[in-house]
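Quick look at the format.
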Amino acid sequence: MHRKLARVAVRRGPFSCVFSGVLALAAAAADRPAHAADWYTGAEPNGAQDAWIVSVDTAATVSSQGAQFAGATATAAPAGNLLTSGLRLRADAVLGSYRAGTGLGQQAEAAAMVGYGWVWPEAVLSAFVGLTVRRNDLPGIEASVRNAGGFKAALDLYARPTPGTMVHATGTYASTFNAYYGRVRGGVAVLGGFLGPEAAVLGDDYYRQWRIGAHWSGLQVGALQFGLAAGYLHDQARKGGLYTTVDMRAGF
């Protein structure tokens, strides 16, 4: 792939991910407890400096709403490498806690997916489908709904329209509690990385949240890439607050 795309920002964003689009949810509905919280790892599409076979994206998020999550996403190219179009395998994992109306919730989730990556000189598009399992332990919910399994799908687009700009859009959906996540970022080259705005929406059958903020990503330190995002969030349970996310990417 062209070297313009080789310098990418540091994905899943939700299980999107040291753990990586993880953006954390404080899951609780305004009039009833949340049975599930969505999450996102933050992993970026393919585009490392080298012809990696495996990329590992990790992230940790904290918010003033009392939520803290960490996660990781591993993406592999079983034939060829991540700089060429082809088959992709992906594994996600997330672990965290959040504050809801009924108390402190604990969440753990894992997913395994298969997909395909289309690589062009200025863009990468990746699509995945697979299986996911989730445990959501929150005081007041029935034991029968604390563990759930189902299908998950993910879609990522990373593009460099010009040498000094980037656009990243990602989305996930899981049949477990109809959990969803979407994140869009844009940026211009600043001090060795990309600086710009970001927006995200996330939720499930029992919870909704939106975020708006800024990110500075793609900061290269040796073989690693780092990113930082921060801004304002609003959820239907604890209303307005602030969030901060730190991302890291490595490859092999």
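Next, a different chain entirely:
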Amino acid sequence: MRLEGVFARYGRRDAWVLQNVDGEVRQGDTIVITGRNGAGKSTLLRVLAGLLPVGRGKVRDRPDIVGWVPERFPTAQPFAVLAYLQGIARVQGLSQSLAQKTIDAWGERFFLTPFFATPLEELSKGTARKVGLIQALLNPPQLLVMDEPWEGLDAQSQAELPAVVEELTKNGGSCVLTDHRGRAADLGDVRHWQVHQGVLKEEDAPAPQEDAEHHVIEIVVRTDEVGTTVEWLREAGYDVHGTRERR
């Protein structure tokens, strides 16, 4: 898949968000896109996924099957989790039996099975993110595009993502993602694209930075609030090292 002189924006009179972008995604690639907020990272992902048409330039040889994982999965839909995934599987052409087998397998892998009967609108951000991941993987994508895929996930699901990416790329697929939390280091051999003011350049692996000073704090909550508090903290970007009963 190649980008050739791509310009992109959201409205005819808007400024260009991407400007004269050239790039190639090859089979087996894992590409991590970095850049400041507003630089155009998410716009580039949408162009790669085919969700945003380009204003100038060309996108050539986009794979037939593209999996798209948005940063925030849209939960304002009148479906329970299982019904939604079954519907997506039908749209993607999976038979009923294969669809259910695939949904069950991914549900177990991402610890989503207990939520199959839960309406989408009642899901937390992290659980909704799991639905977004699974719907993108039901029909094995040739290109998987993910916007901040670790954000909001529980520790077990975060640890599962590198294995998913490795399996995809070993089978000839490609993966392009953004990652502001530095978790892409778990993905092994990756390429790095940096977007700055709408311009793309490929770079070597970013130089390791000295760790910023960190502090460990403890908070005390009621027993029935532990789960929701841990989830809120993770969604806010904090690392939760564990919980224990207060003695």
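The two ends are 58 Å apart (CA to CA).

See the schema section for token definitions.
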